[in-house]
Design a protein that fits this description.
Two copies of one chain form a homodimer. By secondary structure, the first copy, chain A, is an alpha+beta fold. Chain A has nine helices and eleven strands. Chain A has two domains: about 5-135, Jelly Rolls (Sandwich); about 150-245, Winged helix-like DNA-binding domain superfamily/Winged helix DNA-binding domain (Arc Repressor Mutant, subunit A, Orthogonal Bundle). Chain A is globular. At the A-B interface, strand 4, helix 3, helix 4 and helix 5 of A face strand 4, helix 3, helix 4 and helix 5 of B. The structure holds a DNA duplex (30 and 30 nucleotides).
DNA sequence: CGGTTCATTGAAGCTCATCAAACCCCGTGG
DNA sequence: CCACGGGGTTTGATGAGCTTCAATGAACCG
């Protein structure tokens, strides 16, 4: 482990055990670090952008815009997450990505990445793995929006964010810092911002969670888990059926 | 093209140009063909099942069950589609899969598939590609359930199914055979079956689509596309940024 | 045939969106 | 220093869009 671990490597190593040579390959992959301010798009919907990033600092979200002007947020990204992986694989980015806060992201060149996949199949399958986890997340959001009511859905999202942040050391069972506005929550949950506000009030009055001033306090973690029927299985898998390189 | 094309090969060749040797490798991959009757689960939610299939005939659907007893259908599978790809990658299947009609599926052994990925990176990346397309589909469903009303959403699903069936020669702009019940549609759309029925009646009375007796007639294709804001870009990409093997 | 599954329609009511208005916090500039 | 403005939050009032319950009919099947 004496090779310096980038966020990218840290991410992939949660899926497979990386050998030293593989870590070196990953280290060589990194383009420069870029900073984005909130409000500036990183990837625009429909624009081909052969760039992927790994989020080093800050929050972002990926979304799709509808012709009517409404927006569906597909997922939030927190430090350690991939960003724009889909826009490498597809010629055109079906989704836009925008920072929530000031964001630092390491670029990973597309052509680079392609070569690595072909020369270094194990890394390729680790990426497939990671993409698969993101996919599981989207499925979970689909389930929530399709079959959970507003309160369950909101509770579930707050728990998911908490669990993910805890994985990278940015949260605990007690709570976490959360820079999302109620408008962003609404667009992720398929609700109106007004209704999100009322739901949050209800959750607060039931002493389950308090979300205020950029801070989520999980005042009754177990109660919230029960309410949301939260099951973290879709977050932490046991890893792919791939052996460590010898 | 003198190598016999399996559904698997046919599917992958929509993403990359397959060389003769690659086609042979794919041909060698096939386990036996299995038949499933409607009503019997193929993959059960939560059960690890290191099997993937390619649908050769019939329809199936992948779903998630909620503790309350409700069900969210994540996607429908039609001939040529992957099935249970996720259950190979993850130790546990987050989703169940069930046939809609009698189904014929070619098994693809997990260990086999892993080897192929590692020895044959181009095929691996084609699979990643295919998985990515499925992902785009799930995102589209999320957008629909989150931000489209019942009529738009239903119209959109009917158009998506039509487009996908047309790709594999099972449909035209005029219509297609569709074995789905209104209950299945409801669980895919995040609606009640009763409301799906009313929506279908509205669409019929507006002379846009008629869905009756297992047949979808697109009586006003363009009108329906306009209503649903249907954009097929997420279905047919230009293919991955991978060159043909020489 | 009686049983089951699916489609269809009506009636009642709940969940959520929409519109509107006020408020708060905070930064900016006169 | 205070007025102004803007983004976010909060609350009320109203009603649309859906769900739920209930009942009936059509098609199929052992």
């Amino acid at each position: 482990m004496n090779v310096q671990r980038s966020p990218f490597a840290r991410k992939l190593s949660t899926f497979i055990d990386l050998s030293e040579p593989e870590l070196s390959v990953l280290a060589s992959l990194h383009g420069r670090r870029k900073t984005y301010r909130a409000g500036t798009g990183m990837v625009h919907q429909g624009q081909p952008d052969q760039q992927a990033y790994v989020l080093a600092e800050g929050w972002a979200f990926s979304y799709r815009l509808l012709p009517g002007g409404s927006r569906q947020i597909v997922d939030f990204q927190i430090p350690g997450d991939f960003l724009g992986l889909r826009s490498i694989m597809f010629r055109s980015a079906g989704q836009g990505v925008e920072p929530v806060t000031r964001v630092q992201a390491s670029q990973v060149g597309a052509s680079n990445l392609k070569d690595v996949f072909e020369r270094n199949p194990r890394l390729g399958s680790a990426v497939l793995w990671a993409a698969s986890r993101d996919d599981a997340m989207v499925v979970e959001h689909l389930v929530g929006v399709g079959r959970r009511n507003a309160v369950e859905r909101t509770a579930h999202l707050l728990l998911e964010l908490g669990a993910r942040l805890t994985l990278v050391g940015l949260g605990t069972k007690a709570g976490y810092d959360c820079p999302l506005s109620q408008y962003l929550l609404a667009d992720a949950l398929g609700l109106s911002a007004v209704h999100v506000n009322r739901v949050l009030r209800d959750l607060r009055e039931e002493n389950l969670v308090t979300f205020r001033n950029g801070r989520v306090d999980l005042t009754n973690f177990n109660g919230l888990v029960a309410l949301a029927n939260f099951d973290r299985d879709y977050l932490d898998h046991e890893g792919p059926a791939t052996q460590k390189a010898h």
